[in-house]
User: Fold this.
Amino acid sequence: MRKPPNPILIILAPILIAVAVGLVYDLQNFLQDIPEIRDNPMLLAGVAVFIPMLVALVKDTFDAHGL
Assistant:
């Protein structure tokens, strides 16, 4: 039988996910204000793909630990 997750992790997981999503959102807005990134469609596309992947990685990490 699986051991239940640590109660402190159950409390911290949604907070950490919210912080990660907020930081990623701020990073995306910051990067889009830089002219070199805004004017380069390939770089902007890379940023647009990388940021959701980062959020998915954080979510999958918590899911893997049963949170």
Summary: The helical segments are 7-32, 35-38, 41-64.
